[in-house]
Amino acid sequence: VRGMASVFRNIDVSAWALILLFSFGQSAYTGYLALFFVTFGFMVRVMIETIDEVSTESVEALRATGAGYFAIISQSVIPACLPQLLSWVLFMIETNIRSATLVGILTGTGIGFAFDLYFKSFNYSSASLVVLVIVVAVLLLETLSNSIRRVIL
Predict the structure, then answer these.
(1) Which phi and psi angles does 64 have, rounded to 5°?
(2) Checking phi first, is residue 12 left (phi over 0); if not, alpha (psi -120 to 50) or beta?
(3) Is 92 within 8 Å of 42 (Cβ atoms)?
C-alpha cells in the first residue's frame, strides 16, 4: 500500500490530469480521478505517519489490562490521531479546491473550464470574475478550516 500511495503522491496532479485525459478523454471523471489519486497518496502517507507517532504508552497500558485489538484502536489510537488527521483532511480539501482550477483547465471541466473558455474568447471581465470566485472560495475555506483547527487542536 505504501508503494502504491507513494507513486500516486509523487506524480503531480497536472501530470495525472494529462495521463488520464489521454486515457479516458475529456470528462469530469478524468479530473475527479486526477485529484483522487494525489489525495489518496497523500492521505495514506499522512495517516501512516500519524498512527506511527501515537504514544506506545497508552497502547501498552490497554494491552496490560487485556484489551483486544479493536479496543486498543478505538480507545487509544483513534483519539490520539483524530485531531491531526482532521487537520490534514482540511488541508487536502483546500489543496484540492486550488488544484481543481488547473485540472479543469487541462481536462475541460468545472470552474477551470469556465475560466479557460472566457479567457480564450477574450472575455476578460468574466474570466476575472471566475478568478475572483476562486479566490473568495479559497479564502472562505481557509478561514473555516482555521477555525475548525482551533477547536480540534
Answers:
(1) -65, -25
(2) beta
(3) yes
Those residues whose C-beta lies under 8 Å from the C-beta of residue 110, and which sit 6 or more positions away, are 28, 31, 100, 101, 103, 104
Nearest CA-CA partner of 43 in 6, 80, 72: 6
The type of residue at 150 is R
For the chain, what is the total number of helices (H) and then of strands (E)? 8, 0
Domain boundaries, the chain: 2-152
CATH placement of domain 2-152: 1.10.3720.10
61: part of which helix (H) or strand (E)? helix 56-64
Question: CB–CB of 92/39 below 8 Å?
Answer: yes
- Span 28-65, pLDDT tens digits: 889 999 999 999 999 999 999 999 888 888 889 999 99
pLDDT band at 11 (very low <50, low <70, confident <90, very high): very high
CB 42, CB 9: distance < 8 Å: yes
Please state the separation of Cα 7 from the chain's center in Å.
16
Q: Which triple of cell numbers denotes residue 79? A: 483519539
